[in-house]
Design goal:
The complex is a heterodimer. By secondary structure, chain A is of the alpha/beta class. Helices cover 39% and strands 18% of the residues of chain A. Chain A has 9 helices and 11 strands. In chain A, the strands form 2 sheets. In chain A, strands 1, 2, 4, 5, 6, 8, 9 and 10 form an 8-stranded mixed sheet that branches. In chain A, helix 2 packs across helix 9. Chain A is elongated and about 125 Å long. By secondary structure, chain B is of the alpha/beta class. Chain B folds into 3 domains: 232 residues, Rossmann fold, CATH 3.40.50; 142 residues, Chitobiase/beta-hexosaminidase domain 2-like (Chitobiase, domain 2, 2-Layer Sandwich), CATH 3.30.379.10; 212 residues, Class I glutamine amidotransferase (GATase) domain (Rossmann fold, 3-Layer(aba) Sandwich), CATH 3.40.50. Chain B contains 17 helices and 35 strands. In chain B, the strands form 8 sheets. In chain B, strands 26-25-27-28-35-34-33-30-31 form a 9-stranded mixed sheet. Chain B has an 8-stranded mixed sheet with strand order 2-1-3-4-14-13-11-8, with helices on both faces. Chain B has a 7-stranded mixed sheet with strand order 16-15-17-22-21-24-23, sandwiched between helices. In chain B, a hairpin with a 6-residue loop joins strand 21 and strand 22. In chain B, helix 8 runs parallel beside helix 12. Chain B starts with a helix and ends with a helix. The chains are: A alpha/beta, B alpha/beta. Chains A and B meet through helix 1 and helix 5 of A and helix 1 and helix 5 of B.
């Protein structure tokens, strides 16, 4: 006697339901993972407004740090509206931006002014946008000539320049050195785009945006949106978000941040400069002539 | 079993794909490529070349200056320089044997020019007055040399209310170019209010301009390149000595090249430099600046002046014998004043001795009366002069007869060939004789007193109103001399003749509060109308009551300095019947009870008052910068005057709109209704007014004071 063959097995509804749930779960989990793995890219906005002093340099460096700490920021637009300021803080920011550029593109958008040290920072970007009437350039440096002092019977120093750290001849060389460095930086950064000789540039003239474009001091006349689009394109991103990094940092520092505390800085509201300490400046400021050091 | 495994595998694959699908989708949705960091441009720090301004060693080989080389350095025009700045030039001049004289005020300058061979005007910030300009022009006309240097880094001083220069003052100082042009323009030279720069080739900075285009001129002998440390550009009707190249530009002269930084005009007698700094330590050691400095010193050390008798006593080159050809009574006063004469000659590096006749190798000063003119007949004849005396007087005069009696109704006259005849009365005759190697000067007058006056006039150089010809001069001695005096007994006293209005200006310049008063300005404004005597506290000491007697009007000028309690002592000595004009930032001591504020302009408040005759109400006069920067007194007129005594005050000038405390009184006319005494009080430094306003105001004030 032989037994009858087994009846063919049929997937149960229950099984199909299980598979469907599995697919759905996979999709949901995949979506979650994708958000984590591929966050929406963003263009971060950082800003330099007003004078460049140690405090404002620190403020901008905090913004750069925030860019690095913000996932998805794939490009940065640096908005500048500055007459410049002290030499060392300017160079400090410049070097930080150069470092950032090794990671993500930085595009500069000039509002009213990028003069002197402000322009020094502008050339740190890969592309520079400005308005037709923005004030741009004023390449150069200035400072208060120190007094030459001799020796006397009251004060004894260990070296001839111990008290002054410089003298008038040295100061002249220092000014010349910073000027050459500034010009070289502009020439190196702008490269073939520059249509003005370094000699002409060294006059220290400031140009309106349209003229600056003709001279190759900037790349485009355009708005901040144009700069954002350019930055996104350089970063290879679309459908990006825009993150106001500066606003975030400002909020974080709200309780301790005060521009009026900056020594030598012009009051953002009145433009008046309460005091200008001795130093060397990459600075252009119409208010300077009416201010009191 | 295999099928189940296969199904499970597929299920896992599909699940995995489903897990990754959103990620892929997002990636595709958001990204279109990767950012490729560009090569960050960097600069080679070692390529930056810093300028080296190495000083050049220079061995000065001084060319001996001329015998009479006397170089006057103007310090009377707010010259923006430190005294050390002049050391290199001063040293070079001294090494050449030139005498260097500082002229610290207007009177000194005009006086010093009489004996000078060269005048140096560096970085003036105050304009030259018409009288100064006239003196300098006459000096250059006579062959004197003039070196002018201005410097864009040495502007006119600016108001400094806080004691700290603010940036506005640094960037926009009061230009000194109008000041230098007030002198330079008279010699066909124009300083531009600019600076030269060269971006292509410079000495470390765009404004440190190298000059290689140099004119062939003795001043530039051995000079190949110069560095000026900020220079004005100049234009002239003369020769450009130093010219910039095509890259040397001026921000005020866009598009122009070949700009001059130094010019020479007036037949090589006026040298104008656009920079002064290059002559100062240690900038004179750069490039060939030192060589140029030496050449300038050589040039200044030459004597190209044409010395005439009105340049007395500087026309002499040898020891001088004073020869008196007059008989008594001339001798006593001449001898009394001989010491003073010797002092004056010594200040000109000359020796004067009394002698009966000229010694060999000596020059001579021959003095006498017309009555003695026969003794010098040869000299007079050679000069073409004929002295005609009344017949009865050609004989020996009576011992007790006075010259005025002798000449009464006489027809005495002086006839000069080619010029005509003049009456002898009140006339002094000067004749210069250079026929031999020795220089002889003859001075004749009516009598001994007039002769001494004639010598004083000559010493003081007050010869503008004299009739001059080659080697000859006739002066009316009707007007008195003043100021210097011969002998202490005459110091500061009025020398005015009867019928003249005598004004004494007391210059409160004795140093404790600085030296800048407005005495020179008052004198310049009034001397054409009145007999003016200036008493300098610094020079003449504190006057006593006797010194202050005999004047119709006193002007006390405290300049722009703080007044002191001792100043009030002087005021108490003044004759109360005379008019008083008291002028200054703080014209009297206020026992620290006054308030003070800078004054920048003056406005006419009352144009009906005689003091403001010629002005109109509301007219505003800007004041030049105060040299001392001491704020001026602000007083409450009611409190100070109207509530006390019987004097009534009228405020005729007040502080202008650009001043602190506008509308506060600046000039008050005080009139005592009982005594009729009048006083004018000014609460700012008179010298700060425009020159034309000074003259009108001073004349108005004196006229009003004289009415009392």
């Amino acid at each position: 006697m032989t037994s009858p063959p087994p009846a063919p097995t049929q997937p149960s509804k229950k099984r199909w339901l299980l598979v469907a749930l599995l697919i759905l779960a996979a999709l949901v989990i995949g979506l979650q993972i994708s958000v984590w793995l591929v966050p929406q890219p963003a263009v971060g906005i950082i800003r330099l407004q007003g004078d460049i002093w140690a405090a404002s340099a620190e403020y901008l460096k905090l913004q750069i740090e925030e860019v690095r700490n913000t996932p998805g920021v794939k490009a940065v637009v640096l908005e500048i509206d500055s007459p410049g300021g002290e030499v060392t803080p300017t160079q400090d920011i410049y070097l930080e931006i150069q470092k950032l550029r090794a990671e993500i593109p930085v595009v500069v958008s000039i509002n009213s002014m990028a003069a002197s040290g402000g322009y020094y920072l502008a050339v740190s970007g890969e592309a520079i946008f400005a308005k037709p009437s923005s004030t741009i350039g004023n390449v150069g440096v200035w400072g208060f000539i120190p007094d030459d002092i001799g020796v006397n019977e009251t004060v004894l120093a260990s070296g001839p320049f111990k008290l002054t750290a410089s003298n008038q001849a040295e100061f002249l060389r220092e000014i010349e050195g910073i000027k050459q460095e500034f010009l070289s930086t502009v020439a190196a950064s702008r490269g073939d785009r520059l249509n003005i000789s370094t000699t002409e540039l060294s006059q220290g003239l400031a140009y309106p945006g349209r003229e600056a474009l003709r001279l190759g001091l900037i790349d485009h006349l355009g708005s901040r949106s144009d700069a954002i689009e350019a930055a996104a394109e350089m970063a290879g991103i679309v459908n990006y978000a825009i993150v106001d990094i500066e606003a975030r940092v400002y909020q974080q520092l709200l309780e301790t941040y005060s521009t009026t505390d900056w020594i030598g800085a012009a009051d953002p509201a009145t433009g008046q400069r309460p005091q200008l300490p001795p130093g060397i400046y990459l600075l252009y400021d119409e208010n300077l002539i009416g201010g009191t050091p | 079993m295999n099928s189940a495994k296969r199904n499970t595998r597929w299920l896992l694959i599909v699940t995995l794909l489903l897990l990754l699908l959103p990620t892929a989708g997002r990636a595709l949705w958001f990204y279109r490529g990767n950012y490729q960091p560009p090569e960050i441009a960097s600069i080679d720090e070692f390529q930056i070349s810093l300028p080296a301004t190495t000083p050049n060693l220079f061995n000065d080989q001084p060319r001996p200056a001329a015998f009479r080389s006397r170089v006057v350095i103007d310090l009377a025009h707010g010259n923006n320089l430190h005294i050390d700045d002049l050391t290199p030039l001063r040293d070079r001049l001294t090494a050449r044997g030139a005498k260097v004289i500082n002229a610290e005020n207007s009177a000194d300058l005009i006086d010093a020019l009489r004996g000078a061979t060269a005048l140096v005007v560096m970085a003036p910030t105050e304009t030259f007055s018409p009288s100064e300009l006239q003196a300098v022009q006459a000096f250059v006309q006579d062959g004197g040399r003039l070196l002018i240097a201005a410097d864009p880094t040495r502007p006119a001083s600016t108001p400094d209310k806080t004691g700290i220069n603010d940036l506005y003052d640094i960037f926009f100082p009061l230009s000194a170019v109008p000041a230098v042009n007030s002198l330079a323009n008279a010699f066909g030279i124009l300083y531009f209010d600019d600076y030269l720069y060269n971006l292509e080739e410079n000495a470390g900075n765009y404004r440190n301009v190298r000059f290689n285009t140099l004119e062939e001129h003795p001043l530039l002998e051995g000079v190949e390149n110069l560095v000026f440390f900020a220079s004005h550009s100049l234009q002239s009707n003369g020769t450009s000595l130093i010219t910039g190249d095509e890259n040397t530009l001026s921000p005020r002269r866009m598009g122009e090249t070949d700009l001059s930084a130094a010019v020479i005009t007036s037949e090589n007698r006026v040298l104008a430099l656009g920079d002064f700094t290059f002559l100062t330590p240690s900038y004179h050691t750069i490039a060939d600046n030192d060589r140029f400095l030496s050449n300038i010193a050589d040039w200044l050390g030459e004597d190209s002046r044409a010395w005439d008798l009105w340049d007395f006593p500087y026309l002499y080159t040898q020891p001088i014998d004073l020869i008196q050809i007059s008989a008594d009574p001339l001798a006593p006063r001449l001898i009394a004043d001989f010491g003073a004469l010797q002092t004056e000659f010594a200040s000109a590096d000359l020796t004067l001795t009394l002698s009966a006749s000229p010694a060999e190798g000596h020059d001579s000063l021959i003095v006498g009366t017309y009555q003695d003119s026969k003794q010098v007949a040869d000299l007079l004849k050679a000069a073409g002069v004929t002295i005609t005396l009344p017949q009865e007087n050609t004989a020996t005069p009576e011992a007790d007869s006075t010259p005025s009696e002798v000449n009464d109704g006489a027809t005495s006259s002086i006839t000069i060939a080619g010029m005509g005849t003049v009456g002898m009365e009140g006339i002094a005759l000067y004749v210069l004789d250079r026929r031999s190697e020795a220089t002889s000067l003859l001075v004749l007058a009516e009598d001994g007193e007039a002769l001494v006056d004639a010598l004083v006039r000559l010493l003081q150089g007050e010869v503008n109103s004299c009739l001059k010809a080659e080697g000859l001069m006739l002066c009316s001695n009707g007007k008195g001399s003043r100021g210097l005096g011969l002998g202490d007994s005459d110091k500061g006293k009025s020398q005015a003749r009867d019928g003249e209005v005598n004004i004494l200006i007391i210059a409160n310049d004795d140093g404790a509060r600085g030296k800048r008063t407005s005495a020179n300005e008052f004198e310049a404004a009034l001397k054409s109308e009145y007999a003016v005597t200036v008493w300098s506290l610094d020079r003449d000491g504190v006057p006593n009551e006797e010194d202050l007697s005999g004047y119709d009007v006193y002007i006390v000028s405290t300049g722009d300095y703080e007044s002191e309690a001792t100043d009030n002592d002087i005021l108490n000595l003044l004759d109360e019947t005379a008019g008083l004009l008291l002028f200054g930032a703080q014209p009297f001591y206020t026992f620290d009870s006054g308030t003070f504020a800078p004054v920048n302009d003056i406005e006419v408040k009352d144009d009906t008052h005689p003091l403001t005759d010629g002005f109109r109400e509301g007219e505003v006069f800007s004041l030049t910068a105060s040299e001392s920067k001491v704020p001026a007194l602000v007083i409450d007129v009611e409190e100070w005057f109207n509530n006390h005594g019987t004097a009534q005050s009228t405020v005729v000038l007040m502080r202008g709109p650009e001043s602190e405390e506008p509308e506060a009184a600046s000039l008050i006319a005080l009139e005592d209704s009982e005594t009729n005494q009048r006083i004018v009080l000014g609460f700012f430094a008179f010298y700060r007014l425009p020159t034309d306003v000074q003259e009108t105001l001073a004349l108005n004030a004196v006229a009003w004071l004289l009415e009392q």
